[in-house]
Predict the structure.
Amino acid sequence: MKLRRWVRGAILRTNRMAPADVGAAVSGKTTVDPQSNLMTAAGAPATPPPEKPGSSWNGRNAIDLLRIGAGIVWLLNLIFIVNPQNQFWSKFSTTALSYAPTTLGGPGLAQYVAAHSTFFAWSIALFTGYMAVALLLGFTTRIACFTGSFFSAVLLATQFGTTYLFPGGTDVGAHPLYLLVYGVLVVGGAGRSLSADLWLRNILASRRARQIAVGRPAPHPSTFVLTPRTLFAYFVVGTLLSLGVGFGLVFVLPSAPAAASGTPPVGPVHFVNLTVAIDPANGWPQYSPANFTVPVGRVVITIFDNDMPVSWSSCPCPVRGTIDGLELLNGTPIGNVPGTNVAHTFNIPAIGLQILSPGQSVVQFTVDLTRAGELIWYCFAPCGTGPNPYNSAPMNVPGYMTGTVTVT
Ligand SMILES: [Cu+2]
């Protein structure tokens, strides 16, 4: 009895319930008011819970307003694409290549996309147009949410190394937010109000009703109805698969066959001198010449790096792709350059070449170029002058930290 009184007092103190209600609560005698579904104490009048200040929107409209908001985002994307000042089509391959240095698994995918830039640029432009129309009008809403999510998952994977890098990364990027929005739209059943889907469904339903009314056989109604849980499971599995495809692409697509597989070169050795210096016009470090031509055969390249020494603590610094796996650093053969000073690199992914160039030094190396063609070289050291040194200029700027070796 004592305990009962204590419990009663405690409930009163914490919940400020009416004593009659507490009596019922403690004794366990409760009834459910069939009208309001409110649990009421034995015989006591139903007292509605205090109103929480909530939203006056109904859930269906709120979900479809989110859909329209996402449609506006895609419409803005489309405007960015078609705005001639952005030179979307002409700059597409350069933009794709800008992901090469930071793509997980190597630059193969970025090079592939850049090599087929017309196809990829048009695909992305058309997809952007579709997403804007589909989400704004609520036309094929569910398909748009699924394909949008799969697209974002692939981009998330293929741009992973560019977004999630340490040090340098500042936030998780746009794709997790896109995925979240599509997930909410799928779970919330977007397209059930303010949408073309609803309009089309109503037209089909009324046509069917008319046919039944005149006694004609109505077309079979769709019996293939997915429960929200199944739908969401498909959404999650599809998104994860797309993420896997994205990661697969960056690791599977090879940058190019190694040149070493060709015939050993014969004939004279060719010499190329490169200089790294600061361009007084903009303060950017610059390789010059950035584009040069050499004949097929053995080439000795010397880099005079006049830039300041720069520490690159996470430097992957082994020398690769030279005839002896070494470079001459100020005359000393070396196979692994300390990260305490690596101002720039000279990488040609297509032939597996990686040369590390410390500031205020002279580096020399020898390669065999066994095939005619164009080789793109990059500096992979974080020498950008913007907030993120991995992807700001002059990183990936042709004529500064990337260029073409034409082998004839
Ligand atoms: Cu550089």
